[in-house]
Write a structure and sequence with these properties.
The chain has 313 residues and is α+β, with helices and mostly antiparallel strands. The chain is 70% helix and 16% strand. The longest helix is centred in the first third of the chain and has 75 residues.
Length: 313
Amino acid sequence: MKRKLFLILSLLSCIILVLTIILTGCSSAAASKDIAPIEADYAESDKMAEETAVSAEASADYDETQGSSQAQPGADLPQVQPKIIKSAALSIEVEKGTFETSVVKISTLAETNGGYVSNTESYSDSEGNLTSGRVILRVPGEKFDSVIAEIKKAGELKSINISGQDVTQEYVDLESRLKNYEAQEEVLLEMMKKAQNVTESIEVQRELSYVQGEMEIIKGRMNYLNNLVGYSTIDVSIAEPAAAAPVQGGGFINAVKRGLEGAIKVLNGIAFILIAISPLLVLAGIIVLIVWASIRGRNKRRAKRAAQQTEQK
């Protein structure tokens, strides 16, 4: 009995072991089948993430390229230095008797600030004293404001006018035209070297002369503008105080004075007229003397003939 029970238990153990092995294999297969899709999903997600990152990087590179290409034209534009022609006109009144010293002082301002005096005019009063005039200064543009400030200290400021003319656009146009003519000049010089006969050489020389003439005109205008921009113009009018007119009072004495002044003016006018026509008066006197002498001589001859006739009778 014991031996049969042992065999039965052994058989049951084998069956249980086989079933356990079979069930373990099935569960492993099922687990492997379940894990494969998950791994595939993770691989697909990683791939999509990588593609997204690459796309983002490419998009950033494209935006950067576009941005740089859009900013490039602005960066390539030349920086044009503004060209402003500054000018000022001032009127100052100085103390009586200081006109000439004021002119010298203001003229010295131009020289000490690296400029020069362009023009000077002076006018005298009825007594022959220089009491008014003007001085035109040319000073470097950077000294423009400081020189005006010093001129204001020379006397009492009566008026001031400051203006500026922008010639930047004109200067840029002149530069463009000059570059264009320089390019034409190079082409014409090459054509001159390759000319086959005298006719072609003459034609090229004619065009070359025209182009070079236009270049000289443009350069002259540019130099003129550079001079106006580099040196500002300051026009200063200087004058001493005007003499006060005497007050005309009433009364007998003042009336007599005015009468005498009027008589003197009339006599001066008559004297001026006589001096002006004196050559005519002298000529008329000579003619009168000649006519008088002629008439007197004729009368004498007639009287002499009459006396002779009377004696003969």
